[in-house]
UniProtKB/TrEMBL annotation:
It catalyses: IMP + diphosphate = hypoxanthine + 5-phospho-alpha-D-ribose 1-diphosphate. GO terms for molecular function: hypoxanthine phosphoribosyltransferase activity; magnesium ion binding; nucleotide binding. GO terms for biological process: GMP salvage; guanine salvage; hypoxanthine metabolic process; IMP salvage; purine ribonucleoside salvage. Pathway: Purine metabolism; IMP biosynthesis via salvage pathway; IMP from hypoxanthine: step 1/1. Pfam families: Pribosyltran. GO terms for cellular component: cytosol. This is Hypoxanthine phosphoribosyltransferase. Its cofactor is Mg(2+). Belongs to the purine/pyrimidine phosphoribosyltransferase family. It is found in: Cytoplasm.
Length: 216
């Protein structure tokens, strides 16, 4: 996927006022703007599913990166199931769920993966599709991919709904990107701040008041 095919919502004019859409009243003061309304997210996922199915070369093991990726994963899998390849065939899917934690204070870098060695060995020879909610610095994804490669999958592709444009990026770019977003902390559509906002449908920028209210 070429970067010109990402939807770029990085500028000020891409932010919708809170008056333009419905926000749950318990979050009204906790977000400053709506960056991507839920309907646009859903329409974009249809297109990402189409691109993934068109490129697919056989059965896919679709890997959900928990917890933030679960909503995107669920909606993407639903769309992929509806689609056929050009030759009329559908794509056989199996689903896997991986909880990934970066060792942030470890200079060697790395990730803790919730699957056992035995479970990871099952990936050998398979086509993996990793489904992530957001790439920020790219560190988590690069560590995860290095780890998965050691189990010799046939192919590994990554889709991230959001790619943050940040100077802290390590340059990693997923194969399928929904939206390029500004360097701000976003919540909603299962992206959380200390476990809050997972019940907000739109992707929003958190406000200073929201950060203070839900700080731990
Ligand atoms: P990275 O390793 O790419 O810097 O960070 C990846 C993880 O950081 C994401 O999977 C996500 O959990 C978290 N993250 C980064 N930016 C944001 C953000 O703007 N909002 C939320 N909710 N999580 C974020």
């Amino acid at each position: 996927m070429d970067p010109s095919d990402w939807i770029d919502v990085t500028t000020e004019k891409n932010h919708y006022s809170l008056n333009h859409f419905v926000i749950p009243s318990h979050y009204e003061r906790d977000v400053s703007s709506i960056l991507i309304p839920h309907g646009v997210i859903m329409d974009r996922i249809q297109k990402l599913a189409r691109l993934i199915v068109d490129d697919s070369q056989g059965p896919l093991v679709v890997c959900c990166i928990l917890k933030g990726g679960h909503q995107y994963f669920a909606d993407l899998v639903n769309e992929i199931k509806k689609l056929r390849r050009n030759n009329g065939s559908s794509v056989p899917l199996s689903l896997e769920f991986i909880r990934v934690k970066s060792y942030t204070n470890d200079t060697s870098g790395g990730v803790n993966i919730s699957l056992t060695d035995e479970q990871l060995k099952e990936f050998e020879g398979k086509n993996l599709l990793i489904v992530e909610d957001i790439i920020d610095t790219g560190a988590t994804m690069v560590h995860l991919l290095n780890r998965l490669e050691t189990y010799n999958p046939k192919s590994v592709k990554v889709t991230s709904l959001l790619l943050k444009k940040t100077p802290k990026s390590n340059g990693y770019i997923p194969h399928y990107v929904g939206f390029a977003i500004p360097d701000a902390f976003v919540v909603g559509y299962a992206l959380d701040y200390n476990e809050y906002f997972r019940d907000l449908d739109h992707i929003c920028v958190i406000s200073d008041e929201g950060k203070a209210k839900y700080a731990v």
